[in-house]
Design goal:
5 helices, eight-stranded antiparallel β-sheet, alpha+beta, about 325 residues
Length: about 325
């Protein structure tokens, strides 16, 4: 079963070490702006800052901080420091030199990632059979509207989420983690799940047997498990897609359901299923690998402000290049 636990990131400690190394290299190379030592020092320092800052915020905010930092240094140099006597014909201070080098790159990446497209890698099997571990996917960031990059509030609405969309969103429970699931319930929908079948607004969905689907997965560092699944084509009110179920587990692991916001809108029948009414402005998400996915059944609804974009293509998978270019 997909895990909900979050361990303290190793990148934070690696980031601290990198900051120290970077500062030492920059200090040793002072006065040699274009030396390899200075270049390596700034490169390592920036990587370290990304690792540390990312413990408290997402990568979009990290990029925004670097845009403000490098842009601020350039503005201060042009508007204040030069006017106060720094001769621009003499060697430029190293911090100004590298701010000038990094600013256009960071700004370009920030605009591309915040408003247009972003690539993600699939880390788990929760969206099998359509998405497998190792898939690099392309996510359209503007299909649901132009969003303010820090708060993620919609500034210019474009399209609304539809049932069946495969969506990337911010984890409602674990900070600084993004998830990918399929939209099953829209605001106001009544979602029922029993006998591993969905009913939406009183209408049972149609399922067509599609044979079996097997895969192997590490469930512990030294333990591998073979999953023999039944595969179906689910007609999600007009959107047909494949799902898989594993007959050796119950419909629901009730003990893993947390006390999420709006839990009063759901009624659970132990391990046998549930009924939920989706609140206004929120969505109900499920993985296509129904018995190996932690999703809205366990941690509740996804508010619109958490939506990041729609997954549209598999860019590649280095373990299976035949998947490259597949439309999601």
């Amino acid at each position: 079963m997909e895990s909900m636990s979050q361990e303290l990131s190793k990148w934070f400690y690696l980031g601290l070490a990198a900051i120290i190394v970077g500062v030492i290299l920059i200090y040793r190379a002072r006065g040699q702006n274009k030396s390899k030592t200075m270049e390596n020092g700034y490169f390592i320092l920036i990587l370290g800052l990304v690792g540390v800052i990312s413990e408290w915020t997402d990568f979009a905010t990290v990029l925004f901080i670097f845009v403000i930092l490098t842009g601020g240094i350039l503005a201060l140099d042009k508007l204040v420091w030069i006017k106060k006597g720094r001769d621009s014909r003499i060697t430029t201070p190293h911090y100004v030199h590298y701010a000038r080098e990094f600013f256009p790159v960071v700004l370009g990446v920030f605009i591309l990632r915040a408003f247009l497209f972003e690539a993600y890698q699939i880390p788990s099997s929760s969206m099998r059979p359509d998405l497998t571990v190792g898939d690099f996917i392309l996510v359209n960031k503007f299909t649901y509207g132009i969003r303010e990059p820090i708060t993620n509030q919609v500034l210019i609405p474009i399209h609304k989420l539809k049932r069946g969309d495969v969506v990337v969103f911010k984890d409602p429970v674990v900070r600084n983690r993004d998830l990918i699931k399929r939209v099953v319930g829209l605001p106001g929908d009544k979602i029922e799940y029993a006998d591993k079948r969905l009913t939406i607004n009183g209408t049972p969905l149609q399922y067509t047997d599609a044979g079996t689907y097997d895969y192997v997965e590490n469930i512990a560092p030294d333990q591998v498990m073979n999953f023999h699944n039944q595969q179906y084509i689910e007609d999600l009110t007009g959107v047909k897609h494949k799902i898989i179920t594993f007959d050796q587990v119950p419909v629901l692991f009730y003990q893993q359901v947390i006390n999420f916001p709006s839990r009063n809108d759901c009624t659970y029948n132990g391990n046998d299923g549930f009924t939920c009414v989706v609140p206004r402005g929120e969505y109900f998400m499920m993985g296509d690998n129904r018995d190996n996915s932690l999703d809205s059944r366990y941690w509740g609804f996804v508010p619109d402000k958490n939506i990041l974009g729609q997954a549209i293509y598999i860019l590649t998978n280095f373990h299976d290049l035949r998947r490259s270019g597949t439309k999601i």
